[in-house]
Amino acid sequence: MQEPKITDELIAAHGLASDEYAQIIRLLNREPSYTELGIFSAMWNEHCSYKSSKKWLRTLPTEGPQVICGPGENAGVVDIGDGQAVVFKMESHNHPSYIEPYQGAATGVGGILRDVFTMGARPIAAMNSLSFGEPSHPKTKSLVAGVVAGVGGYGNSFGVPTVGGEVRFDPAYNGNCLVNAFAAGLADADKIFYSAASGVGMPVVYLGAKTGRDGVGGATMASAEFDDNIEDKRPTVQVGDPFTEKRLMEATLELMATGAVISIQDMGAAGLTCSAVEMGDKGNLGVRLNLEDVPVREENMTAYEMMLSESQERMLMVLKPELEAEAKAVFDKWDLDFAIVGETIAEDRFLVMHNGELKADLPLKALSGTAPEYDRPHVATPAPAALTDAPQIDPVEGLKAIISSPNYAAKNWVYEQYDHMVMADTVRRPGLGAGVIRVHGTPKALAFTSDVTPRYCRANPVEGGKQAVAEAYRNLSAVGAKPLASTDNLNFGNPEKPEIMGQFVGCIKGIGEACAALDMPIVSGNVSLYNETDGSGILPTPTIGAVGLLEDLADMIGGPAQDGDLAILIGNTEGHLGQSALLAEAFGRADGDAPTVDLTAEALHGTFVRDYHAMIHAATDLSDGGLAMAAFEMAESAGCGIAIEDGDTGWFFGEDQARYLLAVPMTEATILVDLAKSSGVPARLVGSFGGDTLTFGDASAKMADLSALYHAGFEAAVG
Amino acid sequence: MQSAVIVFPGSNCDRDLKVALTKATGKTPHMVWHKDTALPAGVDFVGIPGGFSFGDYLRCGAIAARAPIMQSVINFANGGGIVMGICNGFQVLVETGLLPGALMRNAGLKYICKDVALKVETSQSLFTNGYNQGEKITIPIAHHDGNYLADDALLARLKGEDRIAFTYEDNPNGSVADIAGILSENRRVMGMMPHPERLNDPALGGRDGAKLFEGLMSSLADA
What is the value of pTM for the model shown? Predict the structure, then answer.
């Protein structure tokens, strides 16, 4: 087949800027072939190359004694003691999910699961952080339905419990929903598999599902803004097959146990291209591929299509040749394709052959090593004016406005569509704070949370970035788990706009400071830029996924609060109402500054809660909706009432940070308050649990009525 | 008691069932691959676990029911063997014809994962004798296709022969007569949509499911 001529239009259609194309010419000393142009576009697009973000990502803290492997591999690896490790990452599938919500979300889950088991870990937990446009927008309902069904459809069939996440709505996401998928797996710390190839002449093996034309150009699509013609991009979305993924996972783990794997890499964005280049680059080797040996499910596929296909459920591996028969037997058992499609070579070349014809001959190192890197202009977000005219509201009316909003209403409609109990180790189910999974067959458990408050990040990127990490830290501490490490999924608009780049730079600064202060290094992550439609960007949304360890499940603060427990508030309350949930939900306002995050106080208060876990029946962090929301949610999940002493609107709804609400038995409460004081932790009794009524000062309501409102809000808006 | 758990390529509750059986019997079950053609010798009990045996493609359980191992399971059941299918396992048993009726898409057309209240309709079986008749228990469900269908004649038979094992207190999926689990004519084959193996330990939120495995174990020990 005749390959198309390289024209300016073709170069632009591949998302390559003219100076980037000039760099290709310089590298090759000639014009690239069509296949080569495709390979460059795949490697150099924003999604794969991190060209706008790399400079800033390098500033994040990524190390610590607990870190076995930080960013750069398929997922981060963190020590959890006893020779075991937790392997995790979060990744976005925003653009595909907006175009085709079910498959976009499903393959997002598939991709992140593959990242985890590629490293030799069996997935044990998943989470999802979802952001949609306003509920009344004509697309929102169908996006919510499709994305939730897609997440469930894939994860449920695969068999991983989805134990946490977030769902939010804001008009800023009307044209770009966010689907951030997190997965964590368990592995032996000395049996982690990496992507670096080693040895010359080693067979490169293709594993899993066959290659089709789906997803050709997907990574390039994910690196562009949307316009009115997005429907045309539907064919760039891949189709997921969780049944194949489940078999691929079982086969891969079995294969690893045979000792046949030298290195392994999943085929994600830009499929065969990225995975082959990655393995060669990390191992300082070249790679030759023979495309006629690639298992295909469509006829007459060209080299270009095979190299750029994003067909799902595929892996590339470098194999110990003497164990080929054992390796093939495993894949035969699981009825999956296993084909030797190339070999490692000594020269620094990426050679792509198809039916005896040379389709690409590129310097391999340069493909990833010389990918463009930009220091894009950025302007800091101006400091917002402080809120001066904080409104007052009856606290029960304020609470009702918050709990009836789909942003804060119960999310059962979502998480009941996800299997959150498969593997029979879920000891804390989704709904309130962190999910907790037992480490199978041990007394240990792992806690998982994902957090970010995008409206804080918009108002004040630095404090917003800090707050996302701090809230994750609190959610883990509130179940008694020691925060271990985090993964970041950074969703922003067009980085070529200095104010958007300024949001990015600010958020990274805040995240970095908080991760360092709270000892939660970033071990993996993903950047999603160009989340804009017709020039209008999303709220800056740097989602933080975090993992905490319980050395002994018996130390978990498991809840619920019990009738007669006293409510203790940890942390200082100034009554910060700027950018609060109350302001947004009850008054439709988005003004004021984000709350300031005192990282020293966060560390001190979190440590206190964890240290005295044995005296605490239940704990929750104070975040959106402040004390009022925390009190309501704790009482609601316990099926009892609560009374909180009177105060002004800032008392009930202020979103000051570093705070927790604890339910403590009456006999222990004053002791705990004294212990806090001697530890320098602000603590005071603010009320009690019991009865069937919620009482905030002089205002009150039946818990049953509030509960009904809380459980109806989500479905009424978007169900 | 020696038990076996059938493993299809898309089973995902096979380990959970293995854990529950090991706990109740003190013996690790045989994990039997779907491509095998014979059950291990001396097996007293066969469990068919939850999951998505063949991706739930074609129809839930339809492909699994025709897997090589299933002819042995059918022969085992026809010879009086004890067989239990949970969730996808129930769907497989219906597809083999060992249990009557059909399981359709949930009435709400959505996958549902949550605890549900069940009523024990009969304690007259190896599987339910750990409970009292009429006892209310909590067991989680996690399925997309649990809407049990039986025609009037079959329903009358199931009722008349005391073959309804469990019913839902608050029907989540549209099942006829709130049916959550049924017994075969000889009462030695049971299928149920809820997952007793998931509420098998106080750490998981309760032990209502453990009673099923303990009851099964004690009745087999007596036999």
Answer: 0.96
